[in-house]
Amino acid sequence: MAAPELSVRLRGLAKSYWRGALEIPVLTGVDLDIPRGGYYALMGPSGSGKTTLLNLIAGIDRPTGGELEVCGYDLNGLDDDELAGWRSRNVGFIFQNYNLIPVLTAFENVELPLLLTDMARSERRDRVDRALRLVNLADRMRNYPRQLSGGQEQRVAIARAIVHDPGLLVADEPTGALDARNAEEALVLLEHLNQELGKTIVLVTHDPKAAQHARVQIHLEKGVLDRTVEVHDRPVLPRILEDRG
Ligand SMILES: Nc1ncnc2c1ncn2[C@@H]1O[C@H](COP(=O)(O)OP(=O)(O)OP(=O)(O)O)[C@@H](O)[C@H]1O
């Protein structure tokens, strides 16, 4: 078990891919501690391994070496079924292209992670209502993704990521497909989830403005952490979450 105050603890984390007999090392020894409630941005040049690292932290890929403790569990010690169960309880995912299911309404998309649990229907409904209110989309719950703007789709995706109340949110370029106004709105929402609900957030981004919302920026270079920068001049936010109850 990891120290309870840490959400993520990585030691010598390594990941290689193989092309035939040729090993392609992507991460070659990453050490990183992310405290519970931390907000970290992973940055670095294209191909530096940001998404690879995020996928390892989120338990959707396996390392080829090193230690990996996330949300209190040694992920290397879990078999594939256990890892899937761990993911469904502990991690919320937010992607660049939202990954909503087109034939499901906003409500049904947000409900999806709860269908993996044995939660009663009435509680599922309450949770989905609450999550959609939180992202200010309660009035669009019957809409299909094609009936929503990109910014609204991403907010539905954020509601889906938090509906099962995971401790850790991972976001891979969540603003990459959004215009400046919608990007800012999504970032403000993430920041509230961090500040007011205490979610640990790990965000992969190329966008310096997005990274400015994080508390710590981690720069990857050639498979290792190159430098860590604390963000001091983060934007000041109005408190909004409790208003959406
Ligand atoms: N499944 C895979 N099989 C083989 N090589 C892979 C695989 N996934 C990633 N790679 C390689 O690993 C390296 C790191 O990829 P990764 O997507 O983690 O980088 P990134 O920093 O997120 O890049 P970008 O900013 O362009 O998204 C790249 O060279 C990529 O081609």
From TrEMBL:
Keywords for this protein: ATP-binding, Nucleotide-binding, Transport
Record GO terms (molecular function)? ATP binding; ATP hydrolysis activity; transmembrane transporter activity
Is Nucleotide-binding given among the entry's keywords? yes
The UniProt record lists the keyword Nucleotide-binding: yes
PROSITE patterns xref list: ABC_TRANSPORTER_2
What range(s) does the ABC transporter domain occupy? 8-244
A Pfam cross-reference name: ABC_tran
Listed GO CC annotations = membrane protein complex; plasma membrane
Q: Which family does it belong to?
A: Belongs to the ABC transporter superfamily. Macrolide exporter (TC 3.A.1.122) family.
| UniProt-recorded name of the protein | ABC transporter ATP-binding protein
Q: Give the originating organism.
A: Mesoterricola sediminis
Lineage of the organism? Bacteria, Pseudomonadati, Acidobacteriota, Holophagae, Holophagales
Which gene underlies this protein?
Answer: tptC
